[in-house]
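Appendix B, record 7
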Amino acid sequence: MLLDRHTEVRTLDRLLGDVRGGQSRALVLRGEAGVGKTQLLEYLVDRAAGFWLMRAITSSWPRLVNGRTPRRPTLPIATARRC
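Structure tokens (predicted):
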């Protein structure tokens, strides 16, 4: 259940409506652990019947000793499936 996520739910519903209307859209969810990103994605997937869903997960690389980050700061993992 999504408590107090009215703004986010409206945004997701609008995104799905745009895609159903022929528009291209992309969604990026990011935030600290435990804030509800997975719950929002599950809400979206439940309403995305007939769509292809591509889910990408990234994990940050640690900073180098001298404080610089590598050229590629994330390791992407992507999957795709039909809803």
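Remarks on this record: Strands lie at 52-60, 74-82. The chain has a mean pLDDT of 78.
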